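Minutes, project check-in
Item: structure for the 129-residue chain
Input as provided by the requester:
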Amino acid sequence: MFRAMKKYCHGDILDVGGRDFYLTAKSLRLNFKTWTTLEPVQGPSLGINDPEFKSVVGDGCRMEFEDACFDTVLNIQVLEHVVDPLAMVKEISRVLRPSGYAIFLIPQTSVMHELPAHYYNFTRPWVEW
């Protein structure tokens, strides 16, 4: 995942469900201009005061962003927590610029976690489809 991020992250980043992953991205010196984290609920303050970072509360299946406004979208171990994962994938496609990249880390054999909001483990054929 980190290799893919170093290769494909650029420009304006949207991290769907990333919480404080921005701090990891900074430590890895990833290439980006802005970083927006989208969370379903307001969590505790992350104490991040960088002008390139923004935290937004919203639904990853019904994002309130304009079409084609991000260069890279990250979705790291989030799809298993969404009742309608295809809706989230479609929304990610909608907000991604035509020359952009989406990076997903999708569990196949994960143990149940963050119950009751763990709905799926995905097969490779589902991901390829």
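Outcome recorded: The helical segments are 2-8, 21-27, 85-95, 124-128.
No further action items on this chain.
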